[in-house]
Amino acid sequence: MVGDQQDIVSRLKDVLPLRWFPDETPILDGVLNGLAWGWAWCYQLLQFVRAQARLSTAQGEWLDLIAWDYLGARFARLAGQNDDSFRVGVQRELVRERGTRYAVQSALVDLTGREPGIFEPANPVDTGGYYDPSGLGGGCAYGLTGGWGTLSLPFQCFVRAYRPTNSGIALVMGWGGTAGGWGQGAIEYASLTMIQGQITDTDINAAVAGVLPVGTIGWTQIRS
Q1: Is 183 helix (H, G, I), strand (E, B) or coil?
Q2: pLDDT of 169-192, one tens digit each?
Q3: How many domains does the chain have?
Q4: Structural domain contains residue 109
Q5: End-to-end Cα separation, the chain, in angstroms
Q6: Which residues of the chain have pLDDT under 70?
C-alpha cells in the first residue's frame, strides 16, 4: 500500500546502487525498516490531517470543529447523530438562503421534515379575496382557505411549524404503557442516545429566527 512501511523500504532500496549489497541484506533491511517506520507514521499523519481539513472528509470532533468555526454554537450535532447526517446539515447551512419566505420554509423542512404553514397578512395570495377577477389571489372559503388580511402588521408573518413525527424511540413503549413485561414486549431500558429526532421547540424557533430578515417578526406556533 502506498505510504506504508513496506512501500517506503522498497522505495529506499530502489535508489541504492545494486553493486553495493548482496542479494540477502538482513542488516540493511533492519536499518531501512527502522527509518521507514517513522516515515510511514508521518505519511499516515499527513493523510489524516489532510482529511480533517476538508468538510467532505472530516470525521468526529474534527467535523464538529469545522461546524463551530463557520456556524458557531447555533448549529450543533444532535445527540447520537452520525458524521454523514451532520455533514449534510452543515453543508446545507453554509449555503442556506435567508431573508425570504422560501428560506423559512426550507429551514423548517430541513429541521423537522414537515412542511410549515406560512401566512402573511399583507399578502393577497395568502389572504385570498372576495372578488378577484385577475385570478392572482388565493381564493377564499370561510374557515377553510384564505384568512383575514391587514396592512396594520407590516413586516410580520405567522408561521405554523410542526414537530418531527419520528421523535421518541421506535418500537419501545412509553412510561405507563401496558404493552410490555419483564423480558418481553415493547419495553426495554433506554438511553438518550436512542432517541430519534431530538428536535426541541427552541430549535424550531431558532431556525425561524435565523433566516428572517432584520426588522421582521415571525409569530410562530408549534404543533405536533
Answers
A1: coil
A2: 555 555 655 555 555 555 666 655
A3: 1
A4: yes
A5: 53
A6: 129-145, 166-197
